[in-house]
Design brief:
This protein is α/β, with parallel strands linked by helices. It has two domains: 14-261, Glycerol-3-phosphate (1)-acyltransferase (3-Layer(aba) Sandwich), CATH 3.40.1130; 311-546, Glycerol-3-phosphate (1)-acyltransferase (3-Layer(aba) Sandwich). The protein contains 23 helices and 13 strands. It has helices at residues 14-24, 31-43, 55-67, 87-99, 105-121, 141-148, 150-160, 202-211, 226-232, 238-261, 268-276, 279-292, 296-310, 316-333, 342-349, 365-375, 395-400, 414-430, 454-464, 486-493, 503-508, 530-534, 538-546, and strands at residues 45-52, 126-131, 169-178, 216-220, 224-225, 336-340, 354-358, 382-386, 403-406, 434-435, 472-480, 519-524, 528-529. Strands 6, 7, 8, 9, 10, 11, 12 and 13 form an eight-stranded mixed beta sheet that branches. Strands 1, 2, 3, 4 and 5 form a five-stranded mixed beta sheet that branches.
């Protein structure tokens, strides 16, 4: 296996094996994806595809594939596995390398293309890094671009010889993600916490993987069958087909990363700019000021006040505190959770903004879906919460966990309605996953209540304004073995007044948190495309929106 300089190794050096074992001992793997990959290796030739060239990622992937009995790559562009082997073998390889004549970068590129073509024709698994670090020693811009994107030329070589392959060829996008961490736009820690769109050094990756090794995720994307891909793109030439194949693989990798990381989290100040930007907003605020007989300055001040009352402030520290508290409560209050249909939501989250629409039976509903998303390495949702839950001292924690607070009714407040619709549209435009309870309040009887249409109207308006090409709604059923608030519901149904939410009420209810409430059952329905649901009526509704609908 190690006869080629870049082939994955069967035997590691002590130090290299120790590093790989320590970094991957908690790595999260999808067993179904591994089984599928193992089956693909038996059926045909596997081409693993990673976004950025990284010796560290190659080391960890080699270790995991050896541990999970997966096909080991016989080739990888731009790296050498000699650094993985024991010290004696490493020196022997270096000595043999020094005995061979040196070649320039172009010669190496030609040799790699020839090598990968021969291996794929022989049915051997290979690995392709799509991108390398931008070479600074090449003055020609075209040469620098080609050297920075070596994967396209290698894939073009595989596509050019597609008819010569004796077995089916499967391209498998793979990426490492340090999951369950949030990406903020313009973070001051960007020197340590890299963005997935950067090409970080192996030293920076080693640091971040070590700090987050318990949350390290190996994501395996959707397999692309080369024969089927070329049949669907029969009219394209080799060059264009290779470019389209590269773009498809890049898109698959981006979708895997998007599911884990979610979109970049914007600060509340940035979201405020998005909400109030544009001449039409200023004109609408001036119009409302005239109708109410107040000054434009006062109208602007009220509008900004509504935004700060409403807006979430998602951040890792607050979410981490809520997560710790919820885990402690969860272990005491519930015996487990059963989840159905989540895989359909995962496939949808990778491509489109998603709005979760659960039923509402308990205050625990607010965190159940966030808990499930975090446990399955999905970016948690922004949650629409009633303004009654905005009380000291948990308001900041709830905002930091993704809650945005809306008033129970604002039908007669045109200014509040305008700010709410603009904020909702801004979140959808950013691609945030949202969650709201269509019943408005909690059901005291267990039956589904009559839906409140204010939030749904805002979502439809945002979609019709064209903020996103499509938007998916996911109905969610949440059921408990025993409702935590059942004694309070019994009292209310017997005629007692509803107890107002407050810090004191939370303290008095702490005994409920120590009682057993059985298993939580969560069932995700089929995602509903808003574009497909509106169908032929879409253009008519968009026209009505343009005429003041």
């Amino acid at each position: 296996m190690a006869d080629r300089s870049s082939a994955m190794v069967q035997r590691f050096g002590r130090l290299q094996g120790y590093v790989a074992k320590r970094l991957t001992e908690h790595v999260h793997l999808d067993q179904r994806a591994l089984d599928n990959l193992r089956a693909r290796g038996e059926q045909g030739t596997v081409v693993y595809v990673l976004r950025h060239r990284s010796l560290l990622d190659y080391l960890l992937l080699n270790w995991i594939m050896l541990r999970e009995n997966l096909p080991l790559a016989r080739f990888a562009n731009g790296v050498s596995s000699r650094w993985f082997v024991p010290l004696g073998e490493m020196f022997r390889r270096l000595f043999r390398r020094l005995q061979r004549p040196l070649s320039d970068g172009l010669g190496r590129g030609l040799a790699e293309r020839r090598e990968i073509a021969e291996l794929v024709e022989a049915g051997e698994p290979v690995l392709v890094f799509l991108r390398a670090r931008h070479p600074r020693l090449l003055w020609n811009s075209r040469s620098r671009l080609a050297a920075a994107r070596p994967g396209r030329e290698l894939l073009q070589e595989i596509v050019a010889r597609a008819g010569d392959h004796g077995r089916p060829v499967y391209l498998v996008p793979i990426c490492f993600s340090r999951g369950r961490r949030f990406r903020r736009q313009g973070s001051r820690l960007s020197a340590l916490a890299y963005s997935v769109h950067d090409a970080p050094s192996d030293l920076k990756k080693l640091l971040t993987y070590r700090l987050n090794r318990e949350d390290l995720l190996l994501a395996i994307g959707r397999t692309i069958d080369l024969d089927k891909f070329l049949s669907a793109n029969r009219a394209l030439g080799v060059g264009r087909a290779a470019r389209r194949l590269t773009n498809s693989l890049q898109r698959e990798l981006a979708q895997e990363e998007r599911a884990v990381w979610g979109p970049l989290l914007q600060s509340r100040h940035v979201m405020a700019e998005r909400v109030f930007e544009g001449r039409e907003v200023a004109m609408r605020i001036e119009e409302i000021a005239r109708e109410r007989g107040i000054s434009v300055r006062r109208s602007w001040r009220e509008a900004r006040g509504y935004f700060w009352e409403m807006a979430a402030n998602f951040n890792g520290v607050a979410f981490g505190l809520i997560e710790i508290l919820f885990h402690q409560i969860w272990k005491r209050a519930f015996s487990g959770v059963e989840v159905r249909g989540l895989e359909r939501v995962v496939a949808c989250v990778k491509k489109h903004p998603v709005v979760l629409v659960p039923c509402h039976r308990s205050h625990f509903d607010y965190m159940v879906l966030s808990y499930i998303f975090r446990e399955h390495f999905l970016s948690p949702p922004h949650i629409a919460a009633g303004i009654n839950l905005s009380f000291w001292p948990i308001t900041s924690l709830l905002r930091g966990s993704g809650a945005f607070f809306i008033r129970r009714t604002f039908e007669d407040n045109e200014l509040y309605k305008m700010v709410f619709h603009r904020y909702l549209a801004a979140m959808i435009r950013e691609g945030y996953t949202l969650e709201f309870f269509i019943e408005g309040g909690r059901s005291r009887t267990g039956k589904i209540l009559t839906p409140k249409l204010g939030m749904l109207t805002g979502l439809v308006r945002a979609f019709l304004q064209g903020v996103r090409r499509d938007l998916y709604l996911v109905p969610v059923s949440i059921s408990y073995g025993r409702i935590a608030e059942e004694s309070a519901y019994d009292a209310e149904l017997s005629g007692a007044s509803k107890q107002r939410e407050s810090f004191g009420a939370l303290i008095r209810a702490r005994s409920v948190l120590t009682q057993g409430h059985g298993t939580v059952y969560v069932s995700f329905g089929d995602p509903m495309s808003m574009r497909a649901t509106l169908g032929d009526r879409l253009e008519r509704f968009q026209f009505q929106m343009g005429t003041g609908f």
